[in-house]
Structures
1.
Amino acid sequence: MSRGLPLKRWQLFDYVPNAWALENIHTRDERFITAVTARQVGKTLTGGIEIDTAMTEPPDEFGRPPSVGILAPTYEKAELLVKEYEDRIRRAFDENYYQRNSNKHWMRLPHNEAELRWLSGTDPQSVVGYTFSTLITDESQKISDEVWNKIYPTLSVRKARVISFGTPDITPDQSWYRANFVRGGDPLYADHHSFSVTAFESPWIADDEIKRAQDEMSEREFRMLYLAEWPDEEGIVFRGWRSAMMPTLPVFDPTRRHIMSVDFGLIDDFTVVMLGESSTRTVIKMERFREGASIPTYDKIQDMWEAWGHPKIYADGQGYGKPMCEELRARGMRVVDAKFTVANKMPNVLRLAADMEHRRIQFPGWQELTSELDAYVFQTTPSGKITANAAAGYHDDCVTSLIMLNVGFHTSRGGVHRPRNYLTEDALPLHARTVRIHL
């Protein structure tokens, strides 16, 4: 949190930041800032100030002036942020400070050649071709994955800073915003920061007004719009995973029967290896890593396999996974090809979801896994079929490995399923009584 504050300009604007804005936006260094806000908490005010900060930055290392983008579901929504910025600079300076073309949706500052453009999410093609140094998205929950996927590559040219505001009422066609929010809580994504702002943090809404809204609205709507909480909406696949989460970390017992699952990672993906105890359908261990080369990956998997007593391995042997499975077999490992096809993927996904809700499978609350479970959503294919994948821009390697491990639980000969009771420490088997995990 070392980002400098433009205090002199704030004084010109008579701007006093809200505590949440100062802590989570104005002083943050992360490239991606994702804010889930309740209504009327001051996000337009904060966004207008961030536009000014971005427009007055020095040229980059190539001498390019600032280029700032505003993306919202419609031009009218985007112009709310633009108007907030324009009103402030007009009051602090005069109309000669800037140039504006409302028809072409741009504004320029002649003194430093900085440019501001506002875009509409109604046409995915209209957001292509810009090289922004900063992008602010508003009403992000209404900007589709298609639009985000179009504009995202253009952000890499100048490593644009992205600030996203929105509420948590998303749909299956809009998942990138939630994915960025989840990344903000993942320690492996150091360039992301995410946070929520409730209506209680608004200086403009009295507590009795919040109470009145709670009495008049449905609980789901109130929690979204006033408490900024993600609902358990239909678009999320694994709504009952907390039922399967254990409060303790089990210990590997070599006298018991185990199976492994491996989800192989490519260049930007993780390889995820899981170990499960067959008779109790309990996930004992999980390793998530990037090696960048095949041989170190195989060596690491082999080390785990040997340390865990040579368990049977379940892996997807299709496509690029086929030669990887063959390499494991060549090293003496017994690999079962758990192929994911169009026909069997959704049944396996839904079976895992049901097993979680009924605690027929159990696992510790590893943050990498639970973050992916929260970001795994239903999607519609171009042909109209329903499938499920990670939210746009997020990973699903841990989920895929868990699905394959669950396939193994249902097909391996590990005996009759005997679920453990992890509700109290005294109920744990002796070998599983360990230090509790603080989640």
Note: The two ends are 24 Å apart (CA to CA).
2.
Amino acid sequence: MPLQQCCGVFITMNPGYAGRAELPDNLKVLFRPVSMMIPSYRLIAEIMLYAEGFSSAEELSTKMVQLYKLASEQLSQQKHYDFGMRAVKSVLVMAGSLKRANPTDPENVVLIKAMRNSNVPKFLADDLPLFEALIRDLFPGVEIPPDATGQLQDEIERQIEKEHMEKNPVFVKKIIQLFETFNVRFGVMLVGPSGGGKTACYKILKAAMTQIAEG
């Protein structure tokens, strides 16, 4: 096999991360290892918040990273929980979108909304009070107004009635949370026990959004 002098092969490894496997030893010896240090989540968050238009990015980035650190330590350990850099980045991008959509809202309120919308739908019921307590501790005295989901919620309730289902407030809330999750993530997985309403959630949301789009 002729060697191309202008070609280089690099392998990035993230040992210990979920779903990753170690390189075989016979392949590993062919490469020169280079150690990497863990990046500063706070600094990355601060720069991204500034880029998204936040003026108080330094203070907010510190609180956000601290919240994720405490949540990873104190909440229950679930396979679908993620408090790593991917999760931080998705929240920051969502915060930027919320800020542009609501330029008059306080910046700490916008960031809290982004963190809630990104994380609350995937938390177990027992972890929700603890997560809310962490937010209250890090952002004392901040009142978060409820999101305006009037048209979507009305259409969801109409579709539930159309399918002869019960308009349970928790069911409606979960469908809205699924919609909010789609706004943050490219890929979404619904998890839960059989008969828990996973299929009904996405089918009702699909019907509601189709109806709204068709006017």
Note: The chain has nine helices and no strands.
